[in-house]
Amino acid sequence: MNYRNLGETGMRVSEISLGTWALGSEWGEVSEEDAYATLNRAVDSSVNFLDTADVYGDGRSEKLIGRLLEDRPNDEIFVATKAGRRLDPHTAEGYNYHNLSAFVDRSLTNLGVESLDLLQLHCPPAEAYWQDETFEALDWLVEAGKVKHYGRGRR
Fold it and tell me: I want to staple 122 with a disulfide (CB 3.0 to 4.6 A). Which of 55, 85, 118, 153 is the partner?
C-alpha cells in the first residue's frame, strides 16, 4: 500500500481509502456482521483512511467505525466524517457554531473518540463557504479540541 501526506494535517493516509456510505445500509441491506467484516478487511489490507458521515445510516456507519477503533487500538486509523446534511432547511445560515457543534458532538459519541481527525462540510450551499461564521465555528471546534482538522477550500 502506498501512503501520502494529507495536506498539512500530519496524517499519512493510504492512497486507497474506504468510503462507508453503503455500510449505513440505506441503499440495500448490509448486515452488521458483513459491514464490520468489510471494515476489518480494509484495515487488514493496509487501508488506514475511512470516510463516513453522520447521516450514513443515521449514524450506523460511524458507530461501526467506532467499534473498529475500539477493537483495534494499536492500528493507526484515520477517520474523515462529515456534517451538515442534517440541517432542515439545508441553508448556508445553518452552518453555524450551534448546529456544527451539535453535529460534531453526535459524531464524537458515535465514533467513541475525543476528537475528530477530519471534519468536512457535507454538500453545503456555496454561500456557506463565503460566510465568516462557518469558518469561525470550525475554528472554535478546533480550539475546543473536538476537531483536529477540517476540510476547507481556499477562500
Answer: 85
